[in-house]
Design brief:
With about 425 residues, the chain is mainly alpha-helical. It has three domains: about 130 residues, no CATH class; about 130 residues, Glutaredoxin; about 110 residues, no CATH class. Helix content is about 55%, strand content about 5%. It has a four-stranded mixed sheet, sandwiched between helices. The two termini are about 20 Å apart.
Length: about 425
């Protein structure tokens, strides 16, 4: 769950008109071998015998993120390779249905007892244990493969997992390194204490302009009163030098807009909010207002106003917009525009992002724009880059889109719902 604040929708799925696609590579994955053929005592004995830990996936039949983890993460070869080497794994279905398999019913009593023991309150909850059942690490929600494997590694280390860090924190340890590690582990575990711990870290750590510090500031800054907000507003150049172009403005402006605009309303600031910005942040008010208008047009996919607002913003503040936002603007343009002029302009919006390392959305945006322009072979090259960088559902979506692009089909007719 290592997300950054996003001012625009992170991806735009195209209209659904046909039936679902099933990708064959899912069928060949080996993934985690779950040992629900055993009982709890036998699982512990086997883990002790093989020198492994125990991994439990607590899930329900109605939980979407649970299904995501099972289908896209637990089935991966890299995940299976690590987990099968270091853990005996079991799945525990917490709810009950009329169609439950015999092994689910056989585990019923132990499932409820263990869910209570490990304080399972939402789903999926994934716990990493010693062979004797002692808790080491905990993760709640949906994760991509590398963060999940990292959680597995924390569960095999002596003092780095969620439970060990929590004990050290509650015993009074306020070393900044411990606070940082515990804030991240607590967040992954769905523990509300994460915000408090992160705030303590941000106040105690002296090395403010460092990547570890700014990463926490980016992830945990939520209010204009937070230290991270002031840092993003007052020192954007130093922040961006470490986190990337426009990240300081993205975090700070989003927090301001959330503060000024009630939930459910357009991102564009009202006249009253505009006056407040001019009084409180006179040097940045004009940019924030322009940003809010561009953001509102993107959210509404407003073809009439998005293009001129984006062109004007990039011309004046092009060095102060994040790569993520550039790509989202480009993806919207590929969806709503048909004319060559604006599509080629959108390519220029996205172009600076293409040298960024790792992010899947930048080459994806480039691909869909090139495809809309009829440059099919180039679009396939960039889609291949997006696929290489992606995981789980986005990867399957990209593969499905690539197949249609290779055949020259209309992407607006591609169904993605059941991938």
């Amino acid at each position: 769950m290592h997300e950054t604040r996003s001012s625009f929708r992170h991806s735009r799925l195209l209209p659904v008109l046909l039936t679902c696609l099933l990708l064959p590579n899912l069928l060949s994955a080996q993934g985690i071998k779950f040992r629900n053929d055993l009982d709890w005592k036998a699982v512990q004995q086997l883990a002790k015998q093989e020198g492994k830990g125990i991994f439990i996936d607590f899930f329900t039949t109605w939980c979407g993120p649970c299904k995501h983890m099972t289908r896209f993460i637990f089935s991966r070869d890299d995940v299976g390779e690590y987990m099968n080497k270091h853990y005996i794994s079991i799945k525990m279905q917490v709810d009950s249905t009329a169609g439950d398999a015999p092994e689910v019913r056989r585990w019923r009593k132990e499932t409820l007892e263990l869910a209570a023991r490990y304080k399972v309150k939402s789903y999926p909850t994934m716990v990493f244990l010693e062979a004797d059942g002692s808790p080491k690490h905990k993760m709640m929600g949906s994760f991509d493969s590398q963060p999940f494997i990292h959680g597995g590694k924390l569960g095999r280390q002596q003092d780095s997992g969620y439970d060990a860090l929590q004990r050290r924190y509650r015993a009074g340890n306020r070393d900044p390194k411990i606070l940082r590690a515990y804030a991240l582990a607590a967040r992954a575990a769905g523990d509300r204490e994460a915000d408090t711990v992160a705030t303590q870290y941000l106040h105690l750590e002296k090395n403010v302009f460092s990547l570890p510090y700014l990463t926490i500031a980016q992830q945990f800054t939520k209010d204009t009163a937070d230290k991270g907000f002031r840092l993003m507003m007052e020192e954007p150049a130093k922040v961006n030098a470490l986190l990337g172009p426009g990240i300081a403005q993205q975090v700070a402006f989003n927090i301001l807009l959330q503060k000024l605009q009630p939930p459910g309303l357009s991102s564009e600031v009202s006249d009253a909010s505009g006056k407040f910005l001019q009084q409180r942040y006179p040097e940045k008010a004009k940019q924030i207002i322009a940003y809010s208008r561009m953001r509102a047009a993107n959210e509404k996919m407003d073809s009439a106003t998005l293009f001129p607002l984006t062109e004007a913003y990039l011309q004046q503040y092009g060095n102060e917009i994040s790569y993520e936002e550039r790509s989202n603007l480009a993806i919207t343009a590929a969806t709503i525009y048909k004319d060559k002029y604006r599509l080629e302009k959108a390519l220029l919006w996205n172009k600076p992002t293409l040298h960024a390392q790792g992010d899947k959305m930048h080459p994806y945006a480039e691909s869909v724009l090139l495809y809309a322009l009829g440059r099919r072979q180039e679009s396939l090259t960039y889609m291949d880059q997006a696929i290489a960088r992606a995981e789980s559902f986005p990867e399957q979506m990209f593969r499905a889109m690539r197949a249609w692009m290779a055949d020259g089909k209309d992407l607006s007719e591609l169904v993605l719902t059941n991938l």
